[in-house]
Amino acid sequence: ESKEMSEPKPLEEEAYDMSGARLALTLCVTKARKGSEADLDALKSMFDHLRFNSTMKRDPTAQQFQDEMEKFQQVIDSWEEPVSCAFVVLMAHGDEGILMGEDGETVQLDDLFQVLNNKNCKALRAKPKVFIVQACRGVHKDLGETVGGDEVTLITNDGPYTIPTYTDFLHVYSTVEGFISYRQEEDGSCFIQTLVKVFRDRLGSILELLTEVTRLMAEEELLHEGRLRKVNPEIQSTLRKKLYLQ
């Protein structure tokens, strides 16, 4: 006999507690990156709007990228009130998995990410850690394709429980692996400007907002070297709950 299939149940809505402090660090190489100042201005307004305690450092060397991350981790771990979440924005020239400091030396993104993991940053254990990376990830250029003929450790009641080392991260890249990331000399980067606009003006969980950023960017046509190009962000998430910034 065939058993009746049970109706799917809606997902439980569990959200991160955002009542504590929100801390942000922006590390931006501006040299030979015209438009960076427009991006920094937009990010500052977004962090103010979302009530983040925000620090910005211009033109870090490769070593300073690492040093500033470690300093940020110490600030978070010694914060006088509970911390709810941390944002890190990294803007530089780069290639897959690496950023280039102001001195032309390189730093591994993974080395920067792991400074805030559940092992290394106790105050952010099980709390959301969002990395936004505005950098090239290679040299490929996307001309676009035609679609359909149109151009387009915690304590519970039961005692302590453990969580994996690498949970509660959200990595948002301005482009997919292997591809160039674009910046306008006056207006800043399409990615940062679109992200800031959506995060300021729209309501929803962060993954819903980032889906909207991806939709808007997929509609954009960017002129580069006399040809129209496409670019879209990439989102990698190990978040365990919904993250609401509003």
UniProtKB/TrEMBL annotation:
<dbReference type="GO" id="GO:0005739">
    <property type="term" value="C:mitochondrion"/>
</dbReference>
<dbReference type="Pfam" id="PF00656">
    <property type="entry name" value="Peptidase_C14"/>
</dbReference>
<dbReference type="GO" id="GO:0005654">
    <property type="term" value="C:nucleoplasm"/>
</dbReference>
<dbReference type="GO" id="GO:0030154">
    <property type="term" value="P:cell differentiation"/>
</dbReference>
<keyword id="KW-0963">Cytoplasm</keyword>
<keyword id="KW-0539">Nucleus</keyword>
<keyword id="KW-0788">Thiol protease</keyword>
<dbReference type="InterPro" id="IPR002398">
    <property type="entry name" value="Pept_C14"/>
</dbReference>
<comment type="similarity">
    <text>Belongs to the peptidase C14A family.</text>
</comment>
<feature type="domain" description="Caspase family p10">
    <location>
        <begin position="159"/>
        <end position="246"/>
    </location>
</feature>
<feature type="domain" description="Caspase family p20">
    <location>
        <begin position="33"/>
        <end position="140"/>
    </location>
</feature>
<dbReference type="InterPro" id="IPR001309">
    <property type="entry name" value="Pept_C14_p20"/>
</dbReference>
<protein>
    <recommendedName>
        <fullName>Caspase-14</fullName>
    </recommendedName>
</protein>
<dbReference type="GO" id="GO:0001533">
    <property type="term" value="C:cornified envelope"/>
</dbReference>
<dbReference type="GO" id="GO:0043525">
    <property type="term" value="P:positive regulation of neuron apoptotic process"/>
</dbReference>
<dbReference type="InterPro" id="IPR015917">
    <property type="entry name" value="Pept_C14A"/>
</dbReference>
<dbReference type="InterPro" id="IPR011600">
    <property type="entry name" value="Pept_C14_caspase"/>
</dbReference>
<dbReference type="InterPro" id="IPR029030">
    <property type="entry name" value="Caspase-like_dom_sf"/>
</dbReference>
<comment type="subunit">
    <text>Heterodimer of a large and a small subunit, both processed from the precursor; the mature active form is a p17/p10 dimer and the intermediate form a p20/p8 dimer.</text>
</comment>
<keyword id="KW-0865">Zymogen</keyword>
<dbReference type="GO" id="GO:0004197">
    <property type="term" value="F:cysteine-type endopeptidase activity"/>
</dbReference>
<dbReference type="InterPro" id="IPR033139">
    <property type="entry name" value="Caspase_cys_AS"/>
</dbReference>
<keyword id="KW-0378">Hydrolase</keyword>
<dbReference type="GO" id="GO:0005829">
    <property type="term" value="C:cytosol"/>
</dbReference>
<keyword id="KW-0645">Protease</keyword>
<keyword id="KW-0221">Differentiation</keyword>
<dbReference type="InterPro" id="IPR002138">
    <property type="entry name" value="Pept_C14_p10"/>
</dbReference>
<dbReference type="GO" id="GO:0006508">
    <property type="term" value="P:proteolysis"/>
</dbReference>
